[in-house]
Amino acid sequence: MPYSMLDIRAIRQNPDEFKAKLARKKVPAEVIDALLAADEAWRSALAEVERLKALRNSTSEAIAVKKKNKEDASADIARMREVGEEIKRLDEMVREQEAAVQEYLLTLPNVPHDSVPDGESEADNPVLRTWGEVPKFSFEPRAHFEIAEELGILDTERAVKITGSRFVLYKGLGSRLERALAAFMLDLHTDKHGYTEMFPAFIANEDSLIGTGNLPKFGDEMFKLEGLPYYLIPTAEVPLTNYYRDEILSVDQLPVKFAGYSSCFRSEAGSAGKDTRGLIRLHQFQKVELVNLVLPEESYNVLEQLTRECEAVLQALELPYRTIEICTGDLGSKDAKKYDIEVWLPASNTYREISSCTNFEDFQARRANLRFRRDDSSRPEFAHTLNGSGLAIGRTVAAILENNQEADGSVRIPKALVPYMGGIERITK
RNA sequence: GGAGUGAUGGCCGAGUAGGUCGAAGGCGCUCGCCUGCUAAGCGAGUAUACGGUCAAAAGCCGUAUCGAGGGUUCGAAUCCCUCUCACUCCGCCA
Prior knowledge:
Blueprint: H1 8-13, H2 15-23, H3 29-68, H4 74-107, E1 127-131, H5 144-151, H6 156-162, H7 173-191, E2 196-198, E3 203-205, H8 206-212, E4 230-232, H9 237-241, E5 248-250, E6 256-265, E7 284-294, H10 299-316, E8 321-325, E9 337-345, E10 350-359, H11 363-368, E11 371-373, E12 381-382, E13 384-392, H12 393-403, E14 411-412, E15 426-427
Helix pairs in contact: 2-3, 3-4, 5-12, 7-12
The structure holds one RNA strand of 94 nucleotides.
């Protein structure tokens, strides 16, 4: 039952190593000490209550024998009645201590991989590679939301009326473009990269969200259904990673490669005032997400491969991008190592995140109890999980509109997408 | 939403007047034997988690687990309560 993101036994054996590694994620050493103290208290209470339970079990057997032989067992029964009370009391203590240990383990962040560069913030993320030519315009490039409104393919005002701010409504060829991108990305990943297409429910339960690491810490980043233990998924990562939760896979089932299309819902708590216009930051956006479940020894190779698979989408769409490596100061709580892919957005004259590719190692697998067996006689091991956006569709739309805009306000459809647009090569007024 | 039935190990499936049941039996699987291929046959083995022991693994010891949680009891797969899920029928519905 004890799910944990970190291996408590490993922490017991090498507390200093964990303190040092977690210090890179700004976890004070005292937290590890407190965890170990709670763990010690839990284990000693557990040892005591198990000793009493063993006594009760053996005595109960003796009572059964005595009764069968018509002997008097009342002294044993009276004694066990007291032992039972003591067990009840100690069980309560064990429960409390175990909950305390779990609380620590569920809220501690993942350990960053040794290769992750040190850094304080996103400003310190090294650029790994840059692809494509940044377009030159003979005019002042306009923002995607201006282009889109003028072309009549996006209606933000009415979306606000219908729902509220940070929601949009695609219309006409805008809607078609969304649909075309989803289909194109899914086809690319299933046909070229060996993924299995998945279409999950957009609502997940609490166990699933604990499994991926969204709960208990990040509940306020999601929309919860009122009165129900359900949340709108913030990404298809949640259903896809939890697909094999509480299961033991055989080794020949690995690697698992799922490509899932879904809407993604985010409360965007704490982002007031940021990216308030356009398609960059919404409460709902669509995304094709890639999830990999792999052997531990392969996960870092797979991370490189996964990143290339996501980059392949931008290359096919002829959109300039760069790939950066996330430093310790910018690394997410769940992440062991992460690359971001950033697409060029001419209107803001900057690269903007359009995909994150992350290796969680066994962090999620522990929480989700997702294991595999190397062969029939070996013990189950935790798999490694990875995911990457391939890609966020709203931001891809924004990138196409801005990079492919023309002086007359029209927008070129990337060649690879034309078949998905029913042959339409250009969106005009 | 209404009525009913059910939930046991990888699968199927025994087991309710509480007692040595982690749980019969079968299937599957693994290893070995045997048969000049295959099939059949014979023998052995075949859950998970946690704690302890150990440098570690194996092994060994202990605890827990028969949908989940709680209760009764010296003792619960078996009795009681609550919940969840699945299936069937009715109603409703894209």
